[in-house]
Specification:
Layout: H1 8-37, H2 61-66, H3 79-115, H4 117-132, H5 135-146, H6 150-176, H7 180-187, H8 192-203, H9 205-228, H10 240-246, H11 255-283
Helix pairs in contact: 1-3, 1-11, 3-4, 3-6, 3-8, 3-9, 4-6, 5-6, 6-9, 9-10, 9-11, 10-11
């Protein structure tokens, strides 16, 4: 059942509340991104500097006294420094994987939905095949055969996202291609590539932006899962997922090694999802939830 349209004052109030939510969730995310960008300028020790004499220092009073507010891990490396430097690579991998998947998926979805025919059938079967294959198995096979490098991990994460973008954009394109303004453009002899680039894609930009925001959190969780099972980045590179993997067998007597990156993942993914939901409210006030 379609929701009743909102009158102008209600729409304005929904938009204002949505903008407040966007700022409320966007500002903490901006702080996290700034910490990642400015990590080299902060007064932090080398995140890979080992000091076995300072290993397993707990966060809190002992940590502050030793100069490690969030404690140290089994090799005496500073947890605060590793968390902040790990933010950089975690966000880089998640954002790059999401963007590549979005570009590939959106392009295939546009072409398949607009031109239909054999191309649409091939893209649809590829989407079905991609969604049917357990992603973790595909990613582990790809990483095992090509090495645990950052580019390979990004490609694997792109494979996780492209099919969802392609399915979304294809469905939107199928609906838009029958709209009167698109039919008029086609009847006027406007080239298909121009219609795709100047009309169909801009009409889906809002949907793609919101969906992409939500996908960043999903990709971050997938990267953490791959790192947890040993298929993520290799040392000395640092991500929150690799830090979580380092502390999984020490959770009983050194809980902070796994708990701190786990909390960082939880908070960041939650903020990203709430930001995406708030952004959707601003773009379409009929979906007001605040």
């Amino acid at each position: 059942m379609t929701a009743a349209p909102l009158d102008s004052p209600t729409r304005a109030r929904a938009t204002v509340r949505g903008m407040g939510a966007v700022l409320g969730f966007g500002i903490p995310l901006a702080v996290i991104v700034l910490l990642a960008i400015l990590a080299d300028l902060l007064p932090l020790p080398d995140p890979n500097l080992q000091d076995l004499g300072s290993s397993f220092i707990a966060p809190g009073a002992d940590g502050w006294a030793a100069g490690h507010p969030l404690g140290t891990d089994q090799l005496g490396r500073d947890m605060l420094s590793r968390l902040i430097f790990g933010t950089r690579l975690t966000l880089l991998i998640s954002l790059t994987g999401t963007v590549i998947g979005a570009v590939v998926g959106a392009a295939l979805g546009l072409v398949a939905g607009y031109y239909r025919g054999v191309g649409d059938m091939i893209v649809s079967r590829l989407i079905d095949a991609q969604l049917a294959i357990p992603f973790v198995l595909l990613a582990v096979a790809l990483i095992a055969s090509n090495g645990r490098t950052i580019p390979v991990l990004i490609v694997a994460l792109s494979l996780f996202t492209w099919a969802q973008y392609a399915r979304l954009v294809r469905g939107e394109t199928l609906a838009l291609r029958e709209r009167p303004f698109i039919l008029a453009l086609r009847a006027s002899g406007v080239p298909g590539a121009w219609i795709l680039w100047r009309h169909l894609l801009p009409n889906q930009a809002g949907t793609l932006m919101v969906f992409g925001t939500l996908q960043i959190g999903a990709v971050m969780l997938v990267e953490s899962a791959l790192s947890f099972i040993g298929a993520g980045v290799a040392s000395p590179d640092i991500t929150w997922g690799s830090m979580l993997a380092d502390g999984r067998d020490k959770i009983v007597y050194a809980w902070w090694i796994a708990a701190l990156p786990g909390i960082a993942i939880l908070v960041t993914v939650l903020l990203v999802n709430l930001f995406g939901d708030a952004l959707r409210t601003v773009i379409d006030p009929r979906r007001k939830r605040y």
